[in-house]
Design a protein that fits this description.
Shape: globular
InterPro entries: AAA+_ATPase (IPR003593), ABC_transporter-like_ATP-bd (IPR003439), ABC_transporter-like_CS (IPR017871), ABC_transporter_ATP-binding (IPR050763), ABC_transptr_haem_export_CcmA (IPR005895), P-loop_NTPase (IPR027417)
Pfam families: ABC_tran (PF00005)
Strand content: 25-35%
Number of domains: 2
Order of helices and strands: EEEHEEEHHHEHEHEEHEHEEHEH
Number of helices: 10
Structural class: alpha/beta
Organism: Brockia lithotrophica
Number of strands: 14
Protein name: ABC-2 type transport system ATP-binding protein
Keywords: ATP-binding, Cytochrome c-type biogenesis, Nucleotide-binding, Transport
CATH topology of the largest domain: Rossmann fold
CATH superfamily of the largest domain: P-loop containing nucleotide triphosphate hydrolases
Helix content: 25-40%
Distance between the termini: 28 Å
CATH class of the largest domain: Alpha Beta
Length: about 300
C-alpha cells in the first residue's frame, strides 16, 4: 500500500534521511527512534509536505509527488496544532471536510461520527484557540479521520490525553487498523507502542536500522529478564536448568535467551512441588530496544 523507494532528503545542505526503503501494508506500525532521528521529516515526506531530493513515495502504486489526487488518501496529524483558533471546533471540522471535497451530506455525517468517536460534544461550539492541549489533539485527530484516509500518519497521538481518553483513542486506532487502514505512529510512550505495534520500525540518524514485530525484535536483543513468584525456594530447580537466579523485590529473577526456557522453568518448578504464583517479563522490550538504540548498540 505504501512504498518508500530510496528516499533521501534534508534541509538546505543538511541531509536528514538517507536512502530510506519501506514497504508497508495495512495494520499498526510504530516508528521508534530518539529525538533527531528523522521521524518528523519522514512523516512530512510521506504526507507529501516535503519533496524528496532523491527517490519516491508511492501509495497504491501511484507516485505521491506526481499524482496530487493520491494525497487525499493520506492524513497527517503532526505534533503542532493545525486548527484555526478563532473558529469553533464544529466550524473547523466542517471547513476541513469541505477542503477534503466531501459533499454537504457526507460532511454532516462524518462530522457527527468523529465527534462521537472522539467525545468532542462537550466543547463542539467552543473556539479552538481556547481548548486544552489534550482537547486539541483529539480535534486534530478527528480532522484527519474525516475523509476516511487509507494511510494515517500520527506523531504522538495520545500526548496530553488523560489515561481513559488515551485508551479510547488507542482502541479506535486499533479498530481502524483491523478494518484495513495503514497506521504509522511515532510515540515516546514505549508501553503504548509495545501494546499497539504489529510492526516496529527503528530509525536512527536518518536510516532504518531494524524492523519487525515486537516478538522478532525481542529475539534479536539477546537475554531477557523474567520474574517468578513461587511458594518455596526455586533456586535448586533453576540451577538444574542451568539458570542463575537472584531475588529482586519479592521476585526470583532469571535471564533467558528464548521464551521456551520460561515454559520449561515453569514445568520444572511445578514438577518439583512448588506452586508458581506469578511469572512476568520485567523489562518493556521496546524500552530495551530504545536504550540499545540511543547507546549505539544497534
Amino acid at each position: 500500500m505504501l512504498e518508500v523507494r530510496s528516499v533521501t532528503v534534508g534541509y538546505r545542505s543538511r541531509t536528514v534521511l538517507h536512502e530510506i526503503e519501506l514497504n508497508l501494508g495495512p495494520g499498526f506500525h510504530v516508528l521508534l527512534g530518539p529525538n533527531g532521528a528523522g521521524k518528523t521529516t519522514l512523516f512530512r515526506v510521506l504526507a507529501g509536505v516535503l519533496r524528496p531530493w532523491r527517490g519516491e513515495v508511492r501509495i497504491e502504486g501511484r507516485d505521491l509527488a506526481r499524482d496530487l489526487s493520491v494525497r487525499t488518501k493520506v492524513a497527517y496529524v503532526p505534533q503542532r496544532d493545525t486548527l484555526y483558533p478563532s473558529l469553533t471546533v464544529r466550524d473547523n471540522l466542517f471547513f476541513f471536510a469541505q477542503m477534503y471535497g466531501l459533499s454537504e451530506d457526507v460532511a454532516r455525517q462524518r462530522v457527527s461520527e468523529v465527534v462521537e468517536e472522539l467525545q468532542l460534544g462537550e466543547f463542539l461550539m467552543q473556539a479552538a484557540g481556547t481548548l486544552s492541549g489534550g482537547q486539541k489533539r483529539r480535534v486534530n485527530l478527528a480532522r484527519a479521520l474525516l475523509a476516511t484516509p487509507n494511510v494515517l500518519l500520527l506523531d504522538e497521538p495520545t500526548t496530553g490525553l488523560d489515561p481513559i481518553l488515551a485508551r479510547s483513542v488507542r482502541q479506535l486506532l486499533q479498530g481502524l487498523a483491523r478494518e484495513g487502514q495503514l497506521i504509522l505512529t511515532a510515540t515516546h510512550n514505549l508501553y503504548e507502542a509495545a501494546e499497539l505495534a504489529e510492526e516496529v520500525i527503528l530509525i536512527h540518524r536518518g536510516r532504518i536500522i531494524q524492523r519487525g514485530s515486537v516478538e522478532d525484535l525481542k529475539g534479536r536483543m539477546g537475554l531477557r529478564r523474567f520474574g517468578f513468584r513461587t511458594t518455596g525456594d526455586p533456586r535448586p530447580v533453576f540451577a538444574q536448568l542451568g539458570l542463575e537466579s537472584r531475588l529482586e523485590g519479592g521476585l526470583w529473577v532469571i535471564e533467558v535467551s528464548e521464551e521456551e526456557q520460561v515454559s520449561r522453568a515453569v514445568s520444572a518448578l511445578v514438577t518439583s512441588g512448588l506452586s508458581v504464583l506469578e511469572v512476568r517479563e520485567l523489562d518493556n522490550p521496546l524500552e530495551s530496544l530504545f536504550d540499545a538504540l540511543t547507546a549505539g548498540r544497534l
